[in-house]
Amino acid sequence: MREIDSKRIIDAVAEKLIEINVNLDSSICNALKSSLEKEESPLGEDLLKQILENSEIAAKEKLPICQDTGVVVVFVEAGEDLRIKGMDLKEAINAGVAKGYEEGYLRKSMVSDPIFKRINTGDNTPAIIHIDLVQGEKLKIEIAAKGGGSENMSQLKMLKPADGPQGIIDFICQVVKEAGPNPCPPLVIGVGIGGTMEKAALLSKKALFFPPDYRNTDPELARFEEQILSEVNKLGVGPLGLGGRTTALGVNILTYPCHIASLPVAVNLNCHAARHGHIEF
């Protein structure tokens, strides 16, 4: 059985969180530059240039890309032949979050009681952690800092199977249109389809970890992603909601089998910062 000291996990999580909050992912930069070449709105073009300039300044000055440094969302694949030494895995991840947000001077945004007192926890914990047990002895951690503005604009709907593909497109476009400028477009859109209510929501969040130019390995789903992206960009929301053809940089879909009477669809919007990273031991 392989053993990993929890301190290694703490340090790696802290380092990765500082990195993704300061450095805009290269796939997002490339997508923004590509969109800049196609943008027809002068204001939209200017805003895309400002977003890219902001990312350059953030990287150079080691400052957060955005003042909202988000809630930490983690997807873990933990090998069954792996043992964490010192503390359990969730404790280690949360300790890494606390360390990263303290050392990186990142804004702490988590409140302990969501209903009444809403007192800040002071270290941006707890993280939202999902753990899957897999064969082997490796540990893979996918980590994201998800902003509140884009998360608040996400939606889930239990469609009817008869609504079909067009019903899915219509719902996604409705979500984006209603969101307007609030999630700070251009967006990366994660879509979860199938399973149950909670499974669809989980899939939509996980779909955000793909780069915007990633296309599904299923050719039919890949074409569907392109179709949805095209329809979303026809809405005219544009960069920061001020008009233009660059409303979204990418659409990624994950699916799961579901009940014959169900068609759950979850749409998770992400701002153009799209902060996520990968850790592997």
Describe the structure.
With 281 residues, the protein is α/β, with parallel strands linked by helices. It has two domains: 2-19 and 65-146; 149-273, no CATH class. It is 40% helix and 24% strand. The protein has helices spanning 6-22, 26-38, 42-61, 89-103, 148-152, 164-179, 197-207, 219-233, and strands at 2-5, 71-79, 82-85, 128-134, 139-146, 155-159, 187-194, 248-256, 263-270, 275-280. A four-stranded mixed sheet has the order 4-2-5-10. A four-stranded mixed sheet has the order 6-9-7-8. Strands 1-3 form a two-stranded parallel sheet. Helix 1 (6-22) packs across helix 4 (89-103). The longest helix is centred in the first third of the chain and has 20 residues, at 42-61. The chain is globular and about 55 Å long. The mean pLDDT is 97.
Short note summarizing the structure:
The chain is α/β, with parallel strands linked by helices and 281 residues long. It is 40% helix and 24% strand.
Residues in helix, %: 25-40%
Number of domains: 2
CA-based gyration radius = 19 Å
Described by the principal axes of the CA atoms, the overall outline is globular
Task: List the helices and strands in order.
Answer: EHHHEEHEEHEHEHHEEE
Figure out the total of helices: 8
Helix and strand composition category: alpha/beta
Amino-to-carboxy terminus distance: 14 Å
Overall pLDDT:
97
Beta-strand percent range: 15-25%
Major beta-sheet overview: 4 strands, mixed
Spatial ordering of strands, largest sheet: 4-2-5-10
Quick one: how many beta strands?
10
Which regions have little confidence, pLDDT < 50, spanning 5+ residues? none
